Amino acid sequence: MSAGGFHGGLKLPGRKEAAARPIRRCPPPAVLRVALRQHPGEAALPLVAAGQSVREGQLLARAVGPFGADLHAPCHAEVLSIDESGDGLLCLRPTAEDGDAIRLPLLDPDTAAADAIRARIAAAGVVGLGGAAFPTADKLAIAREAVILNGAECEPLIACDNRLLQERAEAVIRGGELLRRACGAGSLRIAIEEDMPAAREALLAAKADAPAFELDVLPARYPQGGERQLIEAVLGIEVPRGGLPRDIGIGVFNVGTAEAVWRAVAEGRPLTRRLVSVAGGGVVEPVVVEALIGTPVAELIGAAGGYREDAARLILGGPLTGRALADDDHGLRKGDNAIVVLSTAEIPETRTSMPCIRCGACATVCPARLQPQLLWQFGLAGQDSRLSDHGLFDCIECAACDLVCPSHIALTAGFREHKLRLRGEALERAAADAARERFEQRQARLEREAAERAEQEAEQQRRLLARDAVRAALERARARGKGPP
Ligand code: SF4
Ligand code: SF4
């Protein structure tokens, strides 16, 4: 075991009440709302039609292009509707379980080759369950030296990884071993925080019968669960700015992803359900819920006892990194790890922001080693190139800088806006460049065709002139009586 550290960060109150209760199963809702785009790539292509009956585990939609993932039916159901606009939405009405679920062919987890494990993970539609939902098979395509399972659930209120480890530690370890073999890594480590004693005990208890791994128990610190921060805390290695963990041979996978990999390989189960923390002062009984993908947020909150009277704000994700939801219709996606309901008393007071006093507190806590106050100034001055040069795109939007700023400046929201704007402008430039290239290619083609036509006409003209010249010569010869009869 080790106790490392990473640059910056904060000690925050964990508020992990949900970790103390057993995982609660949410029954299938009246209607499942399954998004066709649950991953960074394009929306998956539906393979079913409205009115069709589907069986649990049946392939509903096929991955399209890079970073896409297959989608499977979470239960026996009837397809109610398919909307392919935006992120796309399949609505399913669960039906009685009359017939077997569809499973992928069994694969021996002890002997399966690396490429067979990767193919199985792709076929089961497994993506990263820590939030990013990046397709796991794509991440495994690059060889690694070490795999770290990320159980360092550092954001307040989120507790699904903690509870998963307490109840299903062996499946997580075995899934981690499959991930290690699938990318050819030499070692497997599992990282948790020191305020997860029950998870630690469960991992140690499972260790005797499970594949070898090293357990890292880290001091609880936010945002330790970020990939770069975790690597720094566990291995003492800094991922270079602008680089990725794979550049230094490290693969970081969420512990929930490891469990999903184990189920996909050993049980042939596609990813059709996940654990989600339902927490905050606005729910009756904070708890980790196991629910089918597509379950509306309203049902998840119902599984946690419902809303309290003073429920005031609904957040998808953690209280610091999540986004506000306007209603509770949202269907659970593979990457959704938390639903937070804040009570009136928990909503941060709106404070008027003041000018920066250059105290440097934001830079001290920034885990990405940025100078947030400088980025803020560059943003105000419209100095876009300096924003990029000073690492705007390395900002992980953890909001640690906001928490310590005595001037109450909404730094993270500003950085998020600048990133969106600059990415949008880059996309527009790329689209304009592509359009200009297409225009120039078309012009060149039209000019080439016009030149070819002119050349053909000139050739035709030359032939006509030559023919006329021959005829004239013949006429002259005939006139002189010397020509052919
Ligand atoms: S939000 Fe960005 S700038 Fe602020 S502390 Fe986190 S990584 Fe640093
Ligand atoms: S913490 Fe706030 S006031 Fe202090 S330097 Fe950073 S932005 Fe300025």
Automatic annotation (TrEMBL):
Coiled coil: 429-471
InterPro entries: 4Fe4S_Fe-S-bd, 4Fe4S_Fe_S_CS, Ion_transpt_RnfC/RsxC, Nuo51_FMN-bd, Nuo51_FMN-bd_sf, RnfC_N, Soluble_ligand-bd
Domain 4Fe-4S ferredoxin-type: 346-367
Keywords linked to the UniProt accession: 4Fe-4S, Cell inner membrane, Cell membrane, Coiled coil, Electron transport, Iron, Iron-sulfur, Membrane, Metal-binding, Repeat, Translocase, Transport
Binding site for [4Fe-4S] cluster 1: C356, C359, C362, C405
Cofactor note: Binds 2 [4Fe-4S] clusters per subunit.
Keyword DNA damage: no
Function per UniProt: Part of a membrane-bound complex that couples electron transfer with translocation of ions across the membrane.
Similarity-based family: Belongs to the 4Fe4S bacterial-type ferredoxin family. RnfC subfamily.
Quaternary structure note: The complex is composed of six subunits: RnfA, RnfB, RnfC, RnfD, RnfE and RnfG.
Protein name (database record): Ion-translocating oxidoreductase complex subunit C
Organism: Pseudomarimonas salicorniae
Primary gene name: rsxC
